[in-house]
User: Fold this.
Amino acid sequence: MKTIKSKAKQLSVILLFAIGLVACNSKAEKKEVKNQPVATTQAIFEDTQAIVEDTQQKHEVGSQVPNELVCMVNNAYMGKPQIAVPVNGKTYYGCCEMCVGKLNNEEAARTGIDPFSNKPVDKTEAYIVLMKKEGEVAYFESEENYLNYKKTHKI
Assistant:
């Protein structure tokens, strides 16, 4: 129920934004326009729904996920771009200002442990895999390590 409400709220905000854009664009154009179709609320809704679906990337358990969609402090796949945190020439990602602070100040937040080799791995260089549908990720040294891990563990 919460998911439906939050998606409805997101679509409402996007719909209002789209209506505002249409209104702004119509004010900017002073010339008279005849015989052109007017965007309906339904058409705007369908367009914004397509935009939302395009921007919300979905990955399945066991798939590699892009760095920018992971909060590297919470080790969680977020499904949308996170805050980029440049540290020592590398870009880490966090979901909030607290995470940004940790990534800037704590080396441990920037390092994961490969579950196959048990070696430390820099999160920016890791092969990141979605491990659970709740969003938990793991950092592997390589795709090969992940595939070897997968042979002996249920994912």
